[in-house]
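Q: Start with the shorter request: fold the first protein.
A: Done. Sequence, then structure:
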Amino acid sequence: MEKYQTLIGVVLEKLDQTYKDLTFNYHGLDGVLQTHTEEERQNTPELLTINELRQVYDELIRCLEHRLPGIKD
């Protein structure tokens, strides 16, 4: 049905942007964690939260890449 082609295109474009945002944020969070020692990461509540958020982003990115393998291109 032709009327849904635009909708599909918009949704795919939005997913592509979401993927880019997720990877940008993941790398940003990872960069913050890399500037601290393992001991700091394990004993600082804010760094524990940042690590948890990074793990969530990682899961979301992996899910998108698994479901839409072409999204990495």
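Q: Next, the second protein, separately.
A: Sequence, then structure:
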Amino acid sequence: MNTVRWSTLEAALPLNELPAFHRAFLKLHRPELAAETLPLRRVQQYVHQTLLLLVKEGRAKAVQGDFELVPDCIPPPYRP
């Protein structure tokens, strides 16, 4: 199965684009949170929580303090 490493994806983005990426990730997986209205600290907490939920669902894997996700878990504009 082709996977994307979370840390590699984040590292490829300019620092100022990370909040938009994280919000797009939450919008894809947890639209009920209205991520665009949340403070950045809360967004970061929900991103980590959502990654753990994807692991439980079998759509991601925890690997050495990082995550590997199937590409459809990544918002389309950010997919490698």
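Q: Describe the second briefly.
A: The chain has one domain: 4-75. The chain has a mean pLDDT of 95.
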